[in-house]
Amino acid sequence: MSPLVTALRWHTKKIARGATALFSMLSGLLWVKARRKTPHVRVLMYHRFRDTPRDPFSVRPEEFASQMRWLAQHQLAISPDDFVAFLDGNRALPSGSVLVSIDDGFLDFLSEAVPIMKRYGIPGICFIPVADVGDSEHVSWAELAALAASGIEVGSHSYNHVSLGHLAEIEVADQLRRSRTELEQRLKHPVRMFAYPYGTRADHNSSTRNALRKVGYTLGFVTQHGAVAPDCDRFTIPRIKVEGGESMWMFRLLVRGGLDAWSVFDRIFWRLQATP
Ligand SMILES: [Zn+2]
Known about the structure:
With about 280 residues, the chain is of the alpha/beta class. The chain has a single domain (about 5-270), classed as Glycoside hydrolase/deacetylase (TIM Barrel, Alpha-Beta Barrel), CATH 3.20.20. The chain has helices at about 5-25, 30-35, 60-75, 80-85, 105-120, 140-145, 170-185, 205-215, 250-255, 265-270; strands at about 40-45, 50, 60, 100-105, 125-130, 150-155, 195, 220, 240. It has a five-stranded parallel β-sheet. A two-stranded parallel ribbon has the order 2-3. Zinc ion binds near residues 103, 104, 157 and 197.
């Protein structure tokens, strides 16, 4: 893509995200959301932690540190266990609580994000494409095994990061089963959560949801935006993408639901959404 198109796309999306958040705030939508009878929580989604200008998938480590500090100060970060208990109706959580999730297991997750999460006591879940573990760009098995001590659970992100929406049923089952089995054998703990690679509407469907259930996962995460309530579909749990190059103002709004309405864009423009 030409630099001009990249720049144009970057700025257009930033304006659209800012406008969505601002509209949600000014229209009173966030006020209403915060006062719902059943509190909702959200799952934040991150990928890379590095200073790469105009890459929406990369958040600068300093930005991430400010975000985690703010979550810690407001006691909004919940653990995967809290999240499951909330879905089961066994735990009431304050409105605005968030589960931090990180996809792909790149080395900068380990070198930049994990120390920051440890410093502020932020638990979370990382989703790992199993075939990538231990290559020159990704975390090793030993490093993954050590994450439990930091309160970071490991979930599957398929075997080799393919879109399940385009695979035959037998291949979907293979991606789900092989990744889960290998993670469980290597890490010696049950793997219950799965995040769809790419996670757009093209990457999951009713048969992938059935396959997840059959293979034994209890939760499946997508990349459409939205809040999570106990009655949600457990195999299409929405996540809010945290993008690089945005202010703390934007982060605070998206934690409170300022980008839930982005699901409209997910619905209409998913073909245009860039995927790493
Ligand atoms: Zn991914």
